[in-house]
Amino acid sequence: MQKHDVNGWDILNKHLKSTPEHEKVFDAIFGSDFDRELLAKGGHLLSVTHAAKLAEGLGMNSRSTEEFYNRIITARSNAGCDLHLEEFKACFCELATRNTGSIPCAKIDILWHFQPLHETLHGFMKRVAIASFSVNCPAGGCAFRVTDCRMTAQLDMPEGSLIIVNGTKPAHPDELALFQCRNQRLLLGKLNEIDINPDRVKWTAPVIQLRYSSLP
């Protein structure tokens, strides 16, 4: 990433590389003679209108667009550049509000009763959790409040901390995950970095967010 990534190029370039028709998208917005290095190096500052057209043309979902705008806002603020800054902040706030919703939340020891062969983790939480938590996260999120019990002995997180996961799919081996062993113990980590027999793993869920409690 550039010292001041004032156009969110680090994020934008990833979407350009993954979009086969990105040349047509770029040409339609800037014209065929436009030098995209100007965006990469900050020689041309994206307006909100052009940023929105790029996000739509490259198929960014609302959360990716939110991340894109946040990168621009942070970099321009750090660089002392206020061009279009207030417009980006307004659009970012609108997206963040739209993406915030309630997800099921429960004390983590409720996982003692979860049977992954019968339902998804999100389905289980929707069925049994009596509390909810408001957060900006993808659909299918679940929140677990860490308690002091035998299941959490190896989590190394203070009591009261919050673990938010995607409860609709298992984690990839290189993703930070919450997972449960067949002895009911819970662990946090990447499966390809932890010395554990895969046969001992009962289920996994990708971690979206960790919120550490300041309580003793």
Helix and strand layout, with pairings?
Elements: H1 9-17, H2 22-30, H3 37-40, H4 48-57, H5 62-79, H6 85-99, E1 100-107, H7 121-128, E2 131-136, E3 141-145, E4 162-166, E5 177-181, E6 186-189, E7 201-211
Parallel strand pairs: 1-3
Antiparallel strand pairs: 1-2, 3-4, 4-7, 5-6, 5-7
Explain the overall architecture.
It is a single chain. This protein has 216 residues and is α+β, with helices and mostly antiparallel strands. Helices cover 34% and strands 20% of the residues. It contains seven helices and seven strands. The chain has helices at 9-17, 22-30, 37-40, 48-57, 62-79, 85-99, 121-128, and strands at residues 100-107, 131-136, 141-145, 162-166, 177-181, 186-189, 201-211. It has a seven-stranded mixed β-sheet. Strand 5 and strand 6 (186-189) form a beta hairpin.
Question: What about the largest sheet?
Answer: 7 strands, mixed
* Strand-residue proportion: 15-25%
Order of helices and strands: HHHHHHEHEEEEEE
Mean pLDDT: 87
Shape: elongated
* Uncertain spans: none
According to DSSP, the number of beta strands is 7
Query: Which structural class best describes the helix and strand composition?
Result: alpha+beta
Gap between N and C termini: 38 Å
Radius of gyration: 21 Å
Amount of helix? 25-40%
Order of the strands making up the biggest sheet: 2-1-3-4-7-5-6
Number of helices: 7
Write a brief structural summary:
It is built from 7 helices and 7 strands. With 216 residues, it is an alpha+beta fold.
Supply the key terms:
7-stranded mixed sheet, 216 residues, single chain, alpha+beta, elongated, 7 helices
